[in-house]
Amino acid sequence: MDTSATSASPVDVDKFLVEKLLAPEPEMAAARRRAHDAGLPHIEVSEVQGKFLMLLTQIAGAKRVLEIGTLGGYSTTWLARGVGPEGHVTTCEYEPLHARVAADNLAASGVEDRVEIRIGAALDTLDSLLAEDGEPFDLFFIDADKENNAHYIDLAIMLGRPGSVIVVDNVVREGAVLEEGDPLTDAGRLVNGVRRGIDVLGSNPRVDATALQTVGVKGWDGFAVGIIR
To answer: What count of Cα atoms within 13 Å lies in the side-chain half-sphere of residue 54?
Structure first.
């Protein structure tokens, strides 16, 4: 197909896909505004990515989901829709302000009864979940501080079961993932954390994984997706 004459951008395509594939949802748009008005960074997943997470949750038949990185609860809402009324999402958030905004957004979307927000350092929360020895989680969405990605993936493997799905966001980062970052800078440590997470997914014999690059309103990035053997 000859695309040489097109003037479309990835953002234009995202808008087209949203118009064609997603129903208008004022409450989701309001959730974004509420988070942005509260000063939260504009780094939540896009609309099409959010629905992708919902559909992936449904495809996996997941009823117990663990999210690492709540932010304003936008992706949390999509995951909660995916598990359905009988399912449950546990989401980890370090910042109390983010957790409060997320709680308001979840309530406005009518899914607050199927979500538990755990406030504090995610590594501590995951250790607590291990100690609680509850039922395994069916799906994990990792979208928090990238420096700890490898630890989050290791703990997800321990908290999951054979067949559990692990999704890791922001693994391409405009191509920066190709090179080791400067450990003396925040950006470098972040990239190095992403690279270590990919190394775990590729080397742990209990996981079978791949990754997909994405473009759109979130720029050039990607998801890693794995399944626990």
So the answer is: 17
pLDDT tens digits, 20-71: 999 998 999 999 999 999 999 999 999 999 999 999 999 999 999 999 999 9
Instruction: List Cα–Cα distances, 101 to 13, 111, 123, 127, 144, in angstroms.
Output: 30, 14, 22, 25, 16
**Which DSSP symbol is given to 185?**
S
Specify the DSSP class assigned to residue 179: S
- Give me the chain's average pLDDT, please: 96
Which residues, 6+ apart, have CB-to-CB distance to 183 below 8 Å? 189, 192
The model's pLDDT over 112-127, given as tens digits with 9 standing for 90+, comes to 999 999 999 999 999 9
Distances (CA, A) of 76 to 6, 144, 177, 187, 207: 36, 13, 26, 26, 24
Q: Output the pTM of the full model.
A: 0.95
Which residues are CB-contacts of 164 (< 8 A; sequence separation ≥ 6)? 136, 137, 138, 139, 140, 156, 227, 228
CA-nearest of 148, 186, 189 to 168 is 148
Token look-up 């693994």 returns 171
Contact 44, 141 (CB under 8 A): no
The dihedral through the CA atoms of 103, 141, 194, 14 has a sign that is: negative
